[in-house]
Amino acid sequence: MTIAANDNTPSARKLAMDTERKRDDRAAEKLKRSIRARQAIGDGWDGRPDNDNIAWPLAKALLAEKNGDLLKYAIRYRQIEASATSGAQLGGTSQGMEFMPLDQRTWLNAKGEVVNKGARRLTAVEVTGDIGTHNGAKVAKKWNGDAKVHAMIDDKALLAQLRNRLGIILEPFEELVLHGKTYEHVGRMMGIGNHAGAKGAASALVHMGLIAIRDALGDVTRQQLAA
Prior knowledge:
Layout: H1 10-39, H2 57-64, H3 68-84, E1 99-101, E2 106-109, E3 114-116, H4 124-128, H5 147-166, H6 170-177, H7 183-189, H8 195-217, H9 222-226
């Protein structure tokens, strides 16, 4: 059945929602398969890519329940917080606090550990030995050194609004979303002594918080998540 672009009938809206839901389910299933395959390599791996290997139990929990929609908002909240606290400065595309380049192969992380980030990229001159001609016209590049600063300023204000919306659940919510704590850890932090009760309470809390974030942010695009 073909539906016109401006068709706003209930059936058209339902079809659009079903299509989007199927896309999210496929994306969640793909990520889940990737996690399972990566875990098969070694029990010590926590499900994150090698270059961002931070344990995040909440992501695994949301994937297990096939809740790709709320996972999008957890990822977006992390992005906003990282941008708001990045300390970006005018004058260049500054590195964040996570990694500092020592050269094109070696990086220093925030813990002071040296991390190998892969092969050094060779320039055309290094590959061919040809320095080229000197008569070509220079092409001006668009300067975007202030982009991160503008994003930081905007995201500081947005983060304050989101935190205000979360209210009294802010601290346990951020323990789960930002700091990689488990449901049980946060539930016990809330004063619930038994295993099942602690997990259930923390799960309910983070779902409530992510729904509030979703209501505040509206639609989150794939381009935003990939930024």
